[in-house]
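User: For my dataset I need records formatted as: sequence, then structure tokens, nothing else. Please produce one.
Assistant:
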Amino acid sequence: MDIEDLSTFVEVADAGGVSAAARRLGVSKSIVSRRLFRLEAELGVLLLARTTRGAALTEAGVTFREYAARIRAEIEAARETILPEGELQGRLRIAMPLSFGPTHFAPMVAEMARRHPQLQIHTGYSDRFVDLIAEGFDCAIRVGYLPDSNLVARRIGPIHGRLVASPDYLKAHGSPEKPADIPAHQALMQGTETWRFTDGDGIVTVQPQGRFKADNAIALAGAAASGLGIAWLPDCITHDYVASGALVPIMTSHPPPSAGAYVVRPPGQHPERKVRVLTDLMIEMFAQDPRFAEIGD
């Protein structure tokens, strides 16, 4: 029985269809279908019921999927054990934030590919929180204050940020001096998030209000520079705006607590070595990147 056929079947079962599995695997639908037919022919049973709307697991397919997934995991673990130290093979699927993933994190992933030429790396960029298990990602890079979840997270470094606004906005509306002043201002947000600020030895949580929202931090920085309101943004996004005077740090006596950048992965007793290696590399390169350093007022 071909392990590639077995692994392809697991991807189809988890993705919910041939097309989605083909996108995950980075191959054509015809290749996926050929592997499935070959596996079914060898087993002598129908694993998928194919319809015009896609494919659904048969009763035999549901049962076989559990065994196939365990076999694939065992083979991957065995392969990692016998490979020379540092040599990685297979495929690594990473979900990356769109806001500054391509500019700040992509070079780290490129270095991972350079160091491990036998490893296939597929990166998807989006600012939404992807479902790692349902969408077949090995791990994700997430930035901010990590919400509670069943995912396993490892911090790769701090993300420093601050409240900013344009000189024109401040001239027209004034500057908030304390967290309690924020609800009176137009806030530029990604959704319905809360903002956190230091207040002496404690943390104050504020619910900002505003009419302009975007799911991308770079878009929010541009909106703030256009005078639409105040925004809490990472320094690595606003650095050039602040340097040019297009944005001004405000309410500096109540800075936000440092957030973080994390590698998150689905729960499991032991992470795959390729995820561990990526995490260690990102920690190493994150610490050396001056764009993530804390910037003074």
